[in-house]
Amino acid sequence: MSKINVVVTIKNKNDVSEEKYIAIKNNNKISYQEKDCKTKILLDDFKIIRENKDYLLEMNFIPNKKTKGKYLLKGNNSTIDLDILTDYLIVEDNLIILKYNVITTNQDVIFKLECVK
User: Fold this and answer.
1) ∠90-93-95 over CA atoms, to 5°?
2) Which CATH class is domain 2-116?
3) What pLDDT score does 75 carry?
4) Cβ-based neighbours of 101, under 8 Å, separated by 6 or more
5) pLDDT tens sequence across 78-104
6) Which of 6, 3, 2 is nearest to 116 (CA)?
7) Which residues lie closer than 8 Å to 60 by C-beta, 6 or more apart?
8) Secondary structure of 34-84 as H, E, C letters
9) Exposed, middle or buried by CB within 10 Å (0-12, 13-18, 19+), for 50?
């Protein structure tokens, strides 16, 4: 287990956000805490899990494939199924770039995580 500094950039058609975090890398998992949300990236089967007190979001990504995700609203215990199409996924030692479309909401997203010193 090691602490790493990361810069996370998320782009969609309406917004671009870029934040720095201290993440923990443990085997094939990267975890970091945003303001009110914990994010885990599982590198073996490339899954992103985001959770806070209000929701749990799980998304799986396979390049050029449609996969299922789920968005659980904790307050009323309801789940929204998501269809996700992954355009591409690049995983290198210090860089992850993921481009996907949430078909259910017609939202294109580019997610980038870069390890920095």
Assistant:
1) 50
2) mainly beta
3) 93
4) 84, 85, 87, 107, 108, 109
5) 999 999 999 999 999 899 999 999 999
6) 6
7) 45, 46, 47, 67, 68, 69, 84
8) CCCCEEEEECCCCEEEEECCCEEEEEECCCCCEEEEEEEECCCCEEEEEEE
9) middle
Radius of gyration (C-alpha) of the chain in whole angstroms: 14
> What distance in Å separates the CA atoms of residue 23 and residue 97, rounded to the nearest whole number?
17
The amino acid that residue 74 corresponds to is K
Break the chain into its structural domains and give their ranges: 2-116
Amino acid occupying residue 92: E
Q: Which residue has the tokens 């294109």?
A: 108
Q: Retrieve residue 27's tokens.
A: 């085997």
pTM exceeding the 0.85 threshold for the entire prediction: yes
Cα distance between residue 19 and residue 53, in whole Å: 21
| Pairing between β-strand 66-73 and β-strand 95-102 as defined by DSSP bridges | unpaired
